[in-house]
Write a structure and sequence with these properties.
Strand content: 5-15%
Largest sheet: 3 strands, antiparallel
Structural class: mainly alpha
Number of strands: 3
Helix content: 55-70%
Shape: elongated
CATH superfamily of the largest domain: Winged helix-like DNA-binding domain superfamily/Winged helix DNA-binding domain
Order of helices and strands: HHHEHHEEHH
Number of domains: 2
Strand order of the largest sheet: 1-3-2
CATH topology of the largest domain: Arc Repressor Mutant, subunit A
C-alpha cells in the first residue's frame, strides 16, 4: 500500500519527507507483524531480542549492560526484561564471581528451546513480508546504513 493511501495525503514537503514517513510507517507495520509472530510463543519482541543476544553467547553468561548495548531498540529496560524471562524460567541470573555487584544472565534449556522455535516463526514472517530479492535487500541495507552514518 502506498504511503499516500495510508496517511490519506499527497502533501509532502519533498521526497525525503515522504521517505521519512514511509520508513516510520513501515517500521511500525513490520514491528506489529513480528509481535504477532511471537505471540504464540508467549514472549514480547524485546524479550525475543534479549533471548537472541543470550543465545548468541551461549553457553557463556552475559552482563546486563552488555546485553543492553546490543539491543535493537536501545530504549528497552533490560533489567525488567530479564526479570520477566527469569519469571518464565527462560533465563537464569547468577552473581559474578569476580564482582559481587554484577549480575550475569544466561538462557535456560527451556529458553534455548523456545528461542529456536521463535526464530523459525520470525524467519518465516520475515521471508513472507520482505518481498524483495537479495540484491534489493543489499541495496536497502546500504541505504539504511548510509542514513545512520
Amino acid at each position: 500500500m502506498k504511503i499516500n493511501d495510508v496517511i490519506k495525503s499527497n502533501r509532502f514537503v519533498n521526497e525525503k519527507h515522504k521517505a521519512s514517513l514511509n520508513m516510520l510507517h513501515t517500521a511500525y507495520w513490520f514491528k506489529d507483524q513480528l509481535i504477532a509472530a511471537l505471540k504464540p510463543h508467549g514472549i514480547s519482541l524485546e524479550q525475543h531480542n534479549v533471548m537472541r543476544i543470550l543465545n548468541g553467547s551461549h553457553p557463556d553468561e552475559m552482563r546486563v549492560k552488555d546485553i543492553a548495548s546490543r539491543m535493537v531498540e536501545k530504549s528497552s529496560n533490560v533489567p525488567r526484561i530479564v526479570d520477566k524471562l527469569v519469571e518464565k524460567k527462560l533465563a537464569s541470573r547468577i552473581t559474578s564471581e569476580h564482582d559481587k555487584r554484577e549480575t550475569l544472565v544466561a538462557l535456560t534449556e527451556k529458553g534455548i528451546s523456545l528461542i529456536d522455535k521463535a526464530r523459525k516463526s520470525i524467519d518465516k514472517t520475515t521471508e513472507d513480508l520482505l518481498m524483495i530479492d537479495e540484491a534489493e535487500a543489499k541495496t536497502l541495507n546500504n541505504i539504511l546504513e548510509k542514513m545512520r552514518g
